[in-house]
Amino acid sequence: MRAVVTGGAGFIGSHLCERLLHENHDVVCVDNFLTSSPDNVQHLEGDRHFQLNHWDITQGLDMPGPVDAVLHLASPASPADYLKLPLETLRVGSAGTWHALDLAAAKGARFLLTSTSESYGDPLLHPQPESYWGNVNPVGPRSVYDEAKRFGEALTTAYRRSRGVDAKIVRIFNTFGPRMRADDGRAIPTFISQALRGEPITVTGDGSQTRSLCYVDDVVDGLLRMLTSDHGGPVNLGNPHEVSMLELAQWISKLARSRSEIALVPRPQDDPERRRPDITLARELLDWEPTVPVERGLCDTIADFRRRLGSGLLAERS
Ligand code: NAD
Known about the structure:
Layout: E1 2-6, H1 11-22, E2 26-31, E3 50-54, E4 69-72, H2 79-84, H3 86-107, E5 110-116, H4 143-163, E6 167-172, E7 175-176, H5 187-197, E8 201-204, E9 210-212, E10 214-215, H6 216-227, E11 235-237, E12 242-244, H7 245-255, E13 262-265, H8 280-286, H9 294-310
Parallel strand pairs: 1-2, 1-4, 2-3, 4-5, 5-6, 6-11, 7-10, 8-13
Antiparallel strand pairs: 9-12
Helix pairs in contact: 1-6, 3-4, 5-7, 5-9
Bound molecules: nicotinamide-adenine-dinucleotide (NAD).
């Protein structure tokens, strides 16, 4: 298979490129490094089956030669990024998704959209099945991401229905693992870098809000199962086990053997109270469920952060 991975230099994308190469596929990674760095895929560049294209997909996406699959991951993903990059987020979710779908249509390739649990907004139903339509504030600060992804889902569905593209949608819930950026604003990288630097671990609100945390290898496995399945989705991919932010901070502090204290700080606007996937569909259609225990995933992630901190690669982005 020759696979195009948009956003392939990002956190999840770089693990996906690795896995595709490991399974003997050819990979074209297209990325403009808006929220990532070429460092994430530097180790793949010697592989003759890997090609890195520095390109902004909102400008169009042409590709010589055959393409069997387009895996569309390009988009700022963390709240800190999309709040800082609102127009870029809307553009890549709309024009970028359009170009990626056009490429799949032109090449007769399979297409996979990585949508998000944020399509459910601040959900009124727990856990969230794919049939739930969500509770999104269209003019709230997070709407640039939520609505871009919801538009992407509508566009993907329209290409599937009207152009016959074998297009699929997954809704990814919180994912963690090595290569997350220390400053991406999400709880795990923030807590780990604070714990390793000996700074206070900042938990927002009273820390009782929960998230479900899935290790990146499991998510990548789910993406590939979905790509090669006969289903269009949407299908949720995530870990149904919920962890409170306070528990998570205590857990990371212990695993990192940190002496940092835990400090409670105000919660951001529109921060969802809970999000938990109903993964019945993924179990039934893809025979998929998370296999990596959160504790093991946290240990690997802490080890990666420790290594980057030691080699100066964990500098804050400006
Ligand atoms: P990331 O920010 O690490 O990776 C996104 C990549 O897209 C980056 O490398 C960035 O440079 C690239 N990109 C952005 N705009 C681009 C453009 N116009 N042209 C080319 N490249 C562009 O984020 P991630 O965590 O790896 O997320 C990957 C995908 O998975 C995203 O679509 C995100 O919405 C989705 N997702 C992630 C999570 C999660 O927990 N990480 C949860 C739900 C959904």
